[in-house]
Specification:
By secondary structure, the protein is an all-alpha fold. It has helices spanning 3-30, 36-84, 86-96. It has one domain (3-96). The longest helix has 49 residues, at 36-84.
């Protein structure tokens, strides 16, 4: 499965969880009968699912940023070596030891 497809599925799951929580809250507001514990019992599983989706999204975002950072560092090192010829000096030092 491609990374783009996984990202889209994660976004859709998170969006679905948010919509589910919001619709349940609207339903409970319309049925408001003063039982606070009733709300908690019905919302708790939905909030747990939403939290789980948010945690997965945050972990994927962190992993993506790590990969981007590593790629930027690799490109910067390549450009540094390309512009300074540092790799030739490094090779000479290695041969001398």
């Amino acid at each position: 499965m491609s990374l783009c497809l996984l990202q889209e599925l994660t976004r859709l799951n998170t969006e679905a969880a948010v919509v589910c929580v919001l619709s349940k809250v609207e339903e409970l507001v319309q049925q408001a009968n003063g039982e606070g514990s009733h709300w908690l019992e019905e919302l708790s599983p939905l909030v747990i699912k939403l939290r789980s989706c948010a945690e997965v999204t945050a972990a994927k975002a962190k992993a993506s940023l790590t990969l981007i950072t590593l790629e930027v560092l690799r490109l910067l090192r390549f450009r540094f070596v390309e512009h300074t010829g540092f790799s030739q000096h490094e090779n000479l030092l290695t041969k001398m030891q």
